[in-house]
Protein: Asparaginase
Amino acid sequence: MVFTRGAVDESIHEVHLAVVDAAGTVIARCGDAGLVTFPRSSSKPAQALPLALAAPELPSDELAVACASHAGTPEHRMTVMRLLERSGSTVADLRCGTHPPFDPATAATLIRAGEAPSPLHHNCSGKHAGMLLTCVLNGWPKDGYTEHGHPLQVRIRELHAELGGVDLEQVEAGTDGCSVPAFALPLHAVARIFAGLAHPAGAHAQALERIFAAMTSHPFLVAGLGRLDTTLMPLVPGLVAKMGAEAFYGIGLRDSPHGPLGVAFKISDGGERARAHVALAVLEALGLPLTPELRALAPATLHNWAGREVGGVRVELPLALG
Structure:
């Protein structure tokens, strides 16, 4: 996709994309559908599956925040605290680190109060609180829960392979920004994970359905005000979405003209400003009508700070079928 300034193509973002059906068959692609890459936070629904399996009665808002890259608002933090309390854990047990909250109002409140952010403000604190509870419910130690050899992380790697329909050896491991393992796998395998959320089947169907329902029922908890996941999910019934760092995106579509689908794409240069444009382009290419509210998420024209039109966006997404 191309960002223009005047009549000149100023920036070009290369897109790799895979679309799979409920059986995991690639039905459309752009670029390299087999690209091995890190979904980053787009893995969070899969990382939350052990929690959903171990805690079938967990309230849906707490399951949603376990899948979240949240903005650190009071609502986010209170939900994370409830999840922590279920495992007898405290903020001190979180190993995600600390960063300023994504929510501008919350960040401004901290600055005015002269307070530093806590690990609760970290966008991954819900995931970590969910992991601590999963450890307790399975009789695993909480200590070392972020390490690659911990039983929880071993199981999560296995689930990436199982849900993605690939061999375990194809799931490569690194370390994420929040210190838990990050798993890299082929793009079509990540799309299959999201197809499994849209059309749950097999041994984990009930838990996957609960994750789908939690994320789509609590879109604010999954991200926050003005962020793509939170805005997109209510606008497209039957759609679940989760962003990942470095311009990764995963989408599950329950009701498309092609049946249930999973979509995963990676913008090669990590250009996150292109993400909404690619997401809408692929939805339109798959036959979903774009309402004015959807089109507003990815404006075709660019304006400067004075409000003058200075350029545009051209999305070239040639989907090859099969």
The first helix runs from residue 44 to 47. The longest strand covers residues 15-21.
